[in-house]
Design a protein that fits this description.
single chain, 671 residues, alpha/beta, Ferric Hydroxamate Uptake Protein, Chain A, domain 1, Rossmann fold, 6-stranded mixed beta sheet, 21 helices, elongated
Amino acid sequence: MGIVVLTMKASVIEMFLVLLVTGIHSNKDTTKKIKRPKFNVPQINCDVKAGKIINPEFVVKCPAGCQDPKYHVYGTDIYASYSSVCGAAIHSGVLDNSGGKILVRKVAGQSGYKGSYSNGIQSLSLPRWRESFIVSEGKPQKDVTYPSALTYSSSKSPTAKTGEATKAYQKPSVPGTTAQSVTLVQVTGATASEASHTSLPKPSPSAVSTTSNLRSQPMGYRSWELDLWSTSSDASGQNSPRANAGEMDLWKPGSVLLDAGFVPKEELSTQSLEPVSQGDPNCKIDLSFLIDGSSSIGKRRFRIQKQFLADVAQTLDIGPAGPLMGVVQYGDNPAAQFNLRTHMNSRDLKTAIEKITQRGGLSNAGRAISYVTKNFFSKANGNRGGAPNVAVVIVDGWPTDKVEEASRFARESGINIFFITIEGATENEKQYVTEPNFSNKAVCRTNGFYSLNVQSWFSLHKTVQPLVKRVCDTDRLACSKTCLNSADIGFVIDGSSSVGTGNFRTVLQFVANLSKEFEISDIDTRIGAVQYTYEQRLEFGFEDYNTKSDILNAIKRVGYWSGGTSTGAAINYALEQLFKKSKPNKRKLMILITDGRSYDDVRIPAMVAHHKGVITYAIGVAWAAQDELEVIATHPANDHSFFVDEFDHLYKFVPKVIQSICTEFNSQPRN
């Protein structure tokens, strides 16, 4: 009997120990859940803009596939809040196209945002925006709690969940209209201590830490946020934000809500207009693409060609302050698809490119180049005058007509010709080519800058960046330079006593008539003048006047000096005081006008001028010495020296001098 009792006591003790251990494990699990609340990272779509999210700092997860031009990004490193959050993350290099977590922090609006191409995304330029943000890797900072649900600025935001604080804003009524209410949502981030106790909602550490940095937020943003966190108990005893009439006056929706990104529903149509880029000012060119629409190219390759155009348009950042682009398609005959002024941004341009249909026929590229030279770059078609003209010719294989003569005429008209040849002729096919080495004959330099050879249509996309870099390098667009817009011209004028006052005015009129023929500006041809007797005087330098009218007025104001004739000293003076300030990329032309033999030696000064690359034209009148003119003039002297028997006949030599200048310019090697 005693044995049975002991066995029962042992069983009871054993059961008690099992229950005790189970309870301890249960309590440990409960403790773990309380101390380590799970943080759910909110997920957003690719098209979500930072300005639509109220939170000043947050962690989000981006999906895959946000590397798409339709998700617009504005700025570089610091982005305008009108940008796609995920698109900006890819552009900055924080994410790739596979998506992932990122940390976003709002900062102050910038006075300007510069677009750039990075990681497969072309961001756009923007003059200014009210709010900005920066993106970094999605590693939460210690002791900072981030919201597990985001706060959106419109009534279309996700439905509020448990723990969210909501506030109804009644828009002030306007006579004749009905007041509408917009719901604004603020979500709190739960901390570990808040998970185990029922307490009043508190601001997250991120909200508290940023209150000392109010200047980094748009005006009115913080006053709304702090107001939400002031709470009181409603009739049911539940915690809710204050919503009395006096509080409503503090909201000032006209200044506060709009600056913070709040837009009443009925105003969304006007506030959500997308800012349009003004274009990249560092690439201000007028660009024409001549695309191959011949039958031999086929539909598939024609689509690849259109995609190439769209990629170039996106990369260029089209706009009135930057590059403008038009398209001409050629087959048997050329036809303009649209001109420079038709589409003023990359988005509209890409849409227009998509609608282009293939013409068919032969591949008459030469005829297309002639058409562009005569018709495309006109003021009526959007040519701006101050921007370089660039024509990019795309050829499948080889043209069916000749391009050399048409291209030369285009270059002499100031057009920079680029050739992209795709799948050029093989050795066996070269016998069928109408014009061997056509691309080298078409461009003004055979150093590879103006011509690109692409082995396959399927690798054409690799040419986008090299082409854009070249057409935007305006300092190297040598083909846009002509004999009339590419020189620094210094007139060296004899003011000796033998000339006389009346004849001196005739000489000045000759100088003015010559100057009228040139395109004068600070980036085109510049004019300077020196008058000499025994002494020398700088009448005006290359940098003094930048317009044709100012130059002509300056010539009229030159006063007759009178004295001896020291032509050699005048040449040295012009080299030192005038041409020493010439731009490196300018042709240096000296036009010397004299009526007699010099009292000093001209040979050494003339040799120095030639050695320094100054092209000298010597014009003698009446008693000028022919042998001395030939010494002064650049070789060959017959092309650079002129003799006029009377001052009154000077005007007849204006076209002869201009022709000589342009002949000399066009005879220069193109390599």
